[in-house]
Amino acid sequence: MIDSVIVVGAGIVGAACAEALAAAGVAVRVIERGRPGGGATGAAMGHVLVLDDSEAQLALSRLSRDLWDARRAELPAAVERDECGTIWVAADDREMAAARAKHEWLGARGVESEILDDATLYGHEPNLCPGLAGGLRIAADSVVYPPCAVRWLLERAAARGAVIEEATPVRGVLDGAVELEDGAGRARRVEADAVIVAAGIDTPRLVDLPGLVVRPKKGHLAITDRVPGFVRHQLVELGYLKSAHGAERTSVAFNAQPRATGQVLLGSSRQLDDDDPRVEPEILARMVRRGLEYLPGLAEVPVVRVWVGFRPSTGDNLPVIGPVPGRARLWLATGHEGVGIATSLATARLVADQLLGRSPPIDPAPYLPARLSSPAPDTAPS
Amino acid sequence: MHETVTLTLDGETVTVPAGITVAAALVNRPVHRPVIRGVDRTLERTLERNADRARLAIRTSVTGAPRGPLCGMGICFECRATIDGRVHVRTCMTLCRDGMEVVSGV
Amino acid sequence: MCEERAEVLVVGAGPAGLAAAAAACESGAEVLVVDENAAAGGQIWRAHRGAGVRPETRALLERARRARLLSGAVVFDAALPAARPHRLRALVAEGGPAERIAERVAEGSAEQSAEQIVELVAERVVVATGATELFLPFPGWTLPGVLGVGGLQAMVEGGMDVRDRRVVIAGSGPLLLAVAASLRSAGARVLGVFEQAPRGAVVGVGLTLARHPRKLAQAGALLARLASVSRSYSSWPLRAEGDGAGGGGFLRRVILRTGARDRALDCDLLACAFGLVPATRLAALLGCTIEHAVDRGARARRVVVDELQRTTIDGVLCAGEPTGIGGVDLALAEGAVAGHAAAGDLDRARAAVPRSRRERRFAAALERAFALRSELRDLPADDTVVCRCEDVTWGAIRTWRDGRQAKLETRCGMGPCQGRVCGVALEALLGWPLETPRPPLIPVPFHALADTTSETRIGPPCRPNSGATSAEARGWLEARPEGHFKAR
After folding, report:
1. How confident is the model at residue B66 (pLDDT cuts 50, 70, 90)?
2. Deepest in the core among A218, C8, C229, C483, taking most CB within 10 A?
3. pLDDT digits (tens, 9 = 90+) for C212-248
4. How many CB atoms lie within 10 A of CB A348?
């Protein structure tokens, strides 16, 4: 029986776990070394989407998107939920074929999507560059503003009695306990029936587990001044996944998001194993040039801010969710790479269900830490 | 070098002295008072004053409030307008040029 | 992308920057000056439209005639970590000419050019980015018709017609009286000048002036011009009121408090600002150590320099307001030191130091006199907008513990002003230190971030239409659809 839980990390995943467990009546203590949402979450785009790069990724992202949708009425205005949908943009016939394959694959699994020919694509998004072939529209995808989503989750958790400790660094994590440092540098130990480590790229420092890989994958983002209506959907190039899962250490891919404010958020870039917090002009320029290829009108739109974030990246494109083998009171909920906001609620659901002995709505096996010592083959669509 | 410049402010053609900023041209623009016969002097003066003051508003804030220039030197961004199709241009930092098209209130 | 190389790059063509350029030229260095405005002079020597640059500016331009001046150029990025040779990136505005100062002095005509990026390369950089006004929020301060003090002055210099306008001037600092006189010359009716500092403090400054005869004469002349203008001390604005629904609309009157008495003044314009704060963002981006003496408010933030105006970054010097607010004379003195030092002429730099020390002492006395009173912290109401770009209110902001959290949660400071108005106000009101800025230092169009290649060009100024843009940049420029993006 689980009566108490410690959640290490108040990013979107930690906050979601805290909320789910507190809602179930568990005594929750959240320990955050800085400010809530101050890590990858604060830099994130907040795209809530379904992903089709594997069965496991689809299961997790679809469940999570459904959970976000089910709670849409609860979300405060500050969370800025916008059901703008995603369009995966096909530049040529080859990418159109890939779009059709995605459409069929998703359809066979009950996820709605719509193939767009070029005329329909431009009807939706007139600012796209000419010469594109079409795309795949997933209307039920949405966008949220991550820092306020974290605050909403933590406020709900606190309303159910959760205690949130900010500015509290964690020295170490044990089976059922956490070691903190107090102001004078002395160790303080807090115990609970379970500890959930949702610490993103800080996880390997805290948890020693063979096969556990959580590495920073640096990404650049740029946000414009307000240009309402410039893009209506989140636009992603179909080559996106080539970049995300590719072998190249450094890559860029087109990804543009409309925000409720009318600003356009442009990504994306990937640099594996890079934790340098500086904006790198060369990488940014590559990312911007890619963006300008798809949305040439952006050339004249002012950029107000540029920043970087560090995605917590595992070795096999899936997060790590579940108990650490051999340490039943130590759990992991991390490694969500670039889809943490999207898959946070499903992660929390899996963690809460398993901890409380409930039957989770999807098979938890693909995400378990136990897989790390014996990796399983995975299938993906073409 | 010409003494004056002719440009369009919100669809209206105006001629201004050469060398002034677009912000100055906007706040100086001719006042169009509604002509209403038979009203008393107080109301007429109020209408005059409002039309006059409205010229000081150049943009609309994100919650819909009228805003005018504050800093005059390009740091507050309250004087922004669309110039020749380019959005969010600081009018206090932009000199008027012949043929410019300015759209304010955005 | 064009490249402009020089031995000494001076960022800012106000008094400090031009003094530095002149000194560096006299010490034999090859100098490039860049400034974001269309004409040299900075804020205090702002060129009056149609009348060309001021005599003071002209005199320094003459001494710096061997330098190049690139106007309409705003620095938005730099190669980091900053190391010699320093590489800064500037966006040159459409119509911004690139020419020799010699040409400007002779008032030769300039080529019109398209907006483009220029890479500035120099062994040494003198940061002379000046100051901005400190705007403190109070109810109604966002009404059209409420401007800064220097702000209204700048608008008038830019051509705004203020004839017969009833103007109230409030806030703090020597600028209030100077602008009052200037506005009267422009035909405005100045209803009163309301200084928040106590009369005794300001009179104390007058006594300090006794040791600086030229300044004393200037002050005397100024006061004579303002003999008929009502001046109040220990006075500040409580709120500005409009005549629209709920007091909104456009400015109609100001409520001012003097001691225990409140009064309402109907007016057309309110010029209000509470002194100047150093513009330190470029220096901060370059990694220079910035001192935040937040217990003394935003005006105490400054770039740390040694006696020769050298910052903590090798090859970067700083002169004028960014090293601490001190006015024109200090800026000129520091500029001279920095210019000689940047040119490697340390003997002449050291010889110029005593003058800057004297001016610094006077400036310090001025700052003390015009210290901000605590009542100003209580001016904003919970529904007073503090972040004007994003319409975030005081009530929404003040509940957070630090600036970064407030920014993420409320979006305060995430707008195009990048915190130059709200962030500085919160620095003064809550003691929240400004964050180290990331590029771009000013919002720039995406095309400015797309090109990182540069073509080396040494010597003559860059002529933008001469085919110097990189082939790649031209390629996507040509691929754009018909016309620019049109606003909704």
Report:
1. very high
2. C8
3. 888 888 888 888 888 889 999 999 999 999 977 666 7
4. 29
Give the count of domains, chain C. Answer: 2
CA distance C464 to A296: 22
Is the CB of B88 less than 8 angstroms away from the CB of A261?
no
pLDDT tops 50 at residue C456: no
In tens, the pLDDT along A122-158 reads: 999 999 999 999 999 999 999 999 999 999 999 999 9
Side-chain-facing half-sphere of C19: CA atoms under 13 Å = 26
Structure tokens at B94: 């932009």
Distance from CA of C161 to the nearest CA of A (A): 30
ipTM: 0.94
A370 contact C CB<8A: no
Examine residue C377 and state whether it is found in any structural domain, yes or no.
no
Report whether B14 contacts B104 (CB < 8 A): no
* Residue C104, pLDDT above cutoff 80: no
pLDDT value for C96? 44
Paired tokens of C475: 């390629």
Q: Give pTM, 2 decimals.
A: 0.91
Measured CA to CA, the distance from residue C223 to residue C229 in angstroms comes to 9
CATH code at position C188: 3.50.50.60
Token code pair at residue C289:
């150590």
What's chain A's length in residues? 382
Q: Rounded CA gap, C119 and C448, in Å?
A: 11
Ranges in chain A, pLDDT < 50: 379-382
**Which positions 14-33 of B are in contact with C (Cβ < 8 Å)?**
16-21, 23-25, 27-28
User: Do residue C320 and residue C254 come from a single domain?
Assistant: no
Instruction: Please tell me the distance from the alpha carbon of residue C459 to that of residue A248, in angstroms, as a whole number.
Output: 41
Report the residue of B78, B80, B87 to disrupt the A interface, i.e. the one with the largest count of A CBs within 10 Å.
B87
Domain B4-28+58-103 coded CATH 3.40.640.10: no
* Cβ within 8 Å, pair C144-B18: no
Q: At what angle do helices C327-342 and C15-26 cross, to 10 degrees?
A: 30
From B11's Cα to the closest Cα of chain C, the distance in A is: 15
